[in-house]
Specification:
Structural class: mainly alpha
Distance between the termini: 110 Å
Strand content: under 5%
Helix content: over 70%
Largest sheet: none
Number of helices: 2
Radius of gyration: 41 Å
Number of strands: 0
Length: 111
């Protein structure tokens, strides 16, 4: 007689064995589902941590690039300012005439 399955009157031993086998398989299935749900929870937790880590790395990279671009723009503006100052010092009359001409055109256009 198989263990784990009570014998009820009117059931043949083959049916009882099949029932015990099904119950055993259901038990294993419950264990497998439990292990699977734990694995999914673990993956979700690790996945969220990975996403946070990647987002943080991306944020730091964007910040560094932004700072580098800002520094390049400041350097370019400073170089342009120096170049304009040198040209104005080297040719002051020409610079004043050019500025007056630009002012005149600006006034004519936006009147």
């Amino acid at each position: 007689m198989p263990t784990g399955a009570p014998r009820t009157p009117g059931q043949d031993p083959k049916t009882q064995a099949e029932q015990a086998n099904v119950e055993e398989q259901l038990g294993r299935l419950r264990e497998d589902v439990s292990a699977l749900s734990e694995a999914v929870r673990s993956l979700a937790t690790h996945g969220a941590e990975d996403v946070k880590r990647q987002a943080s790395a991306l944020r730091d990279d964007v910040r560094q690039r932004g700072e580098a671009y800002l520094q390049q723009a400041q350097d370019a503006a400073s170089d342009l300012e120096e170049e304009m100052s040198e040209r104005i010092r080297s040719e002051p009359i020409k610079s004043v005439l050019i500025a007056a001409g630009i002012g005149y055109l600006y006034a004519r256009i936006f009147r």
